[in-house]
Amino acid sequence: MLGESSLEQRMLYLADLLAERQKLGPFMQILPVCSRLLNQEIMRVSGLLSNQVAELERMGHDHPYRSLGQQPNGGQMGMMAWNAMQTNVSGGG
């Protein structure tokens, strides 16, 4: 079973992936395989976070990261939602 420290490690990893994705932005069209693999890893990690948060909630732990990776209806965020979130975090439009 994964604990909250593991959740925090995964969140840091996801933040690193999102930062790398932003750095690669200008090169995405000339590095399509890299872009695809990075996006797949972001989706994989966000799904793991979503599942781990749900498990913590089932165990009765209310965690401040419980909504990360989830929409208000409880569904997993898609890539478009992550893109919007990353734009907001980085101070972009």
Automatic annotation (TrEMBL):
Q: Which residues are in the STAR protein homodimerisation region domain?
A: 11-52
Extract the InterPro entries matched here: STAR_dimer (IPR032377)
Task: Give the source's domain of life in one word.
Answer: Eukaryota
Q: What single Pfam family name could you report for this chain, choosing any that match? A: STAR_dimer
Its recorded name reads KH domain-containing protein
Organism (species): Sesamum angustifolium
